[in-house]
Amino acid sequence: MARISVSHPTPEPGADSGDRPGLAIVLLLMAMAAFVTMDGLAKSLVGQGLAPELIVLWRYALVTVVLLPFIARYWGRRAFRTGPARAAHPARWCVARPRRCCPLCHPGAGA
C-alpha cells in the first residue's frame, strides 16, 4: 500500500488549531432553521393567495434589513463606496500589506 505524505505536519494533541467545531455546528443549525422557516412561510403565504413575486420581494427585503448591520459593522462606509472594479485577490492578507507584493494587488509592481 502506498504511503501518503502531507505538506504540513499534524498539530500536537494539545495545540490550538484555530478550529471551532462548536461554532460551526451552531451556525449550520441556525442556517437550517432559517431555510425551513422561510420555506414554510412562503408555502403558507402562497396558500393564502399572495403572489409569488411579492413573497420573493419581501423575502429579499427582509434579508437586506437583517444583513445591513453586519455589512455596516464589517465594511463601514467602504461597502457603499464606488470606484473602479478590481479583480478579487485570492489572498486577502496580501491586499492589506504595506509593501507591493504582487501585480494583482498593485498594478505595475513586480512580484
Secondary structure tally, helices: 3
Q: Helix proportion of residues, in percent? A: 40-55%
Global mean pLDDT: 77
Largest sheet: none
SSE order, one letter for each helix or strand: HHH
Tell the overall outline. Answer: extended
Q: SS-based structural class?
A: mainly alpha
The number of distinct β-strands equals: 0
Poorly predicted residue ranges? none
Q: What is the CA-atom radius of gyration, in angstroms?
A: 23 Å
Proportion of beta-strand residues: under 5%
* First-last Cα distance: 41 Å
Main attributes?
111 residues, mainly alpha, 3 helices
Descriptive notes:
The chain contains three helices and no strands. The protein has a domain at 21-80. The radius of gyration is 23 Å and the shape is extended. The protein has helices at residues 21-47, 52-75, 92-96. Helix 1 runs antiparallel to helix 2 (52-75). With 111 residues, it is an all-alpha fold.
Element layout with pairings:
Blueprint lengths: L20 H27 L4 H24 L16 H5 L15
Helix pairs in contact: 1-2
Would you kindly provide a brief summary of this structure?
By secondary structure, the chain is mostly helical.
